[in-house]
Amino acid sequence: MRQVILDTETTGLSWERGCRVVEIGCVEFVERRPTGRTFHRYINPECDFEPGASEVTGLTLDFLAAKPRFAEIVDEFIEFIDGAELIIHNADFDVGFLDNELRLCGAHYGCLSARCRIEDTLLLARKRYPGQRNSLDALCRRLGVDNSHRQLHGALLDAQLLAEVYIGLTSGQTDLGFGEVSLDAGVDALPFEIDLNRPRPRVQPTPEELAAHEGRLAVLRKKAGAAVWDRFVDVAADTVGEPAVA
Q: Distance between CA atoms of 156 and 9, rounded to whole angstroms?
């Protein structure tokens, strides 16, 4: 499955009032892993910023004046996202702006939803954390994603952070699709018995695996105050040396 994590920056809050896109950042995933491919463009909006909007991104009209207009990058943008599942935080905002830009380039470009399936991580977060703040910064803190370098909003940086947040939001085990084994499938019983008393093999983790395990526990402790694993370790420590009960 190919996914594109996407973010935009704009000259204001409403494309209906004439605001435009000034930056697009995209990160490509295949089978939930980053491929290293990104799409990042600054865009000349051909209009002014609304009050306060420039301060949020740090972008200025002087900087953007020499950048291409959206119509000049639309084809490579479409080529990058076409057919992918788009992962967007507060998708209505970004999709509204991008659909408007596509309309301005010509009706033949259509709309994003005709080209891509769209997943809104804000809706995912609201289902998982109802009644809590679910901004990108809040989710980074909650899921242990380091966003200390995010001083200003930037489309590519925010897409990279959102990629980590999305993996955290959707990292629960899902059905692998094997289904239940049917005893009526016409398969004979296996011609051997299982000895439940035979010794179990012991797996010795490597130092790297132990370090990764501790790192994951540290994230869980930071988010939840404790890790369930700690309770089992404590119980094991308390029972060392006690005689076995027949």
A: 10
Residues 220, 228: Cα–Cα separation, whole Å: 9
Domain ranges for the chain: 2-169, 209-238
List per-residue pLDDT tens for the chain, 246 residues long: 999 999 999 999 999 999 999 999 999 999 999 999 999 999 999 999 999 999 888 899 999 999 999 999 999 999 999 999 999 999 999 999 999 999 999 999 999 999 999 999 999 999 999 999 999 999 999 999 888 876 657 899 999 999 999 999 998 533 333 344 343 434 444 444 545 555 655 667 788 778 877 877 777 776 666 666 666 555 444 544 444 443
Alpha carbon distance 174, 79 (integer Å)? 31
For domain 2-169, give its CATH number from 3.30.200.20, 1.10.287.3510, 3.10.270.10, 3.30.420.10. Answer: 3.30.420.10
Is the model's pTM score more than 0.90?
Answer: no
The catalytic site residues sit at 153
CB 21 within 8 A of CB 45: yes
